[in-house]
Structure to design on (216 residues):
């Protein structure tokens, strides 16, 4: 059974080129075209495509917002971004909106076909040169996670309070620096001592030095 495809791009010449490229594929059927996001949304209920080939730079509603709305109304429809944008910001926003593929317009036709077929099968396809963003994001999160673990479960705010306490600041001074109340500082201090099983400022300072929070 052929993959029913809806082409969404505000440039008619691009849609025409895509139609010429894809109509020669036995397993792909062009169900329709749209030049705006709203036009695409109006067509979905009547055309029931399997995959939407979505440009990001649409005149009325961004392809990101359109993707989010489509996935909300028709979660079964897969969306592949075909765009000139190859930067990290658009890449992650499109994936977060629910896209199953991300392909730059400079990609070879075979890459686009692979993305369409993968999306129709319920899989995700990312253009190889863009997949590096996911790898970098994963490694960054792992690094952050490891840093959090080395601080024995302290929150970011508790770590800030710890640094000031270790530097000899009073609760009032810390409160003024961080823009919080002295009572809140005292509560953070209690939580820090409890989490780290420390019982004095001296132990706290030793811990902060050992963890590299302050320099001896």
């Amino acid at each position: 059974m052929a993959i029913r495809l809806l082409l969404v791009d505000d440039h008619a010449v691009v849609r025409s080129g895509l139609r010429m490229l894809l109509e020669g594929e036995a397993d792909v059927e062009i169900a329709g075209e749209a030049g705006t996001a709203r036009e695409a949304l109006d067509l979905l209920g009547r055309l029931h495509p399997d995959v939407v080939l979505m440009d990001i730079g649409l005149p009325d509603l961004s392809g990101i917002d359109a993707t989010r709305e489509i996935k909300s109304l028709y979660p079964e429809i897969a969306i592949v971004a075909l765009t000139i944008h190859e930067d990290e910001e658009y890449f992650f926003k499109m994936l977060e909106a629910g896209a199953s593929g991300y392909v730059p317009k400079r990609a070879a036709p075979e890459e686009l076909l692979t993305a369409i077929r993968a999306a129709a099968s319920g899989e995700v396809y990312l253009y190889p040169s863009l997949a590096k963003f996911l790898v970098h994001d994963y490694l960054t999160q792992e690094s952050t996670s490891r840093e959090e673990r080395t601080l024995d479960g302290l929150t970011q705010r508790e770590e800030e309070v710890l640094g000031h306490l270790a530097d000899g600041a009073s609760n009032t001074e810390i409160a003024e620096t961080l823009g919080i109340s002295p009572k809140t500082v005292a509560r953070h201090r209690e939580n820090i001592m409890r989490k780290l099983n420390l019982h004095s400022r001296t132990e706290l300072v030793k811990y902060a030095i050992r963890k590299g929070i302050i320099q001896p």
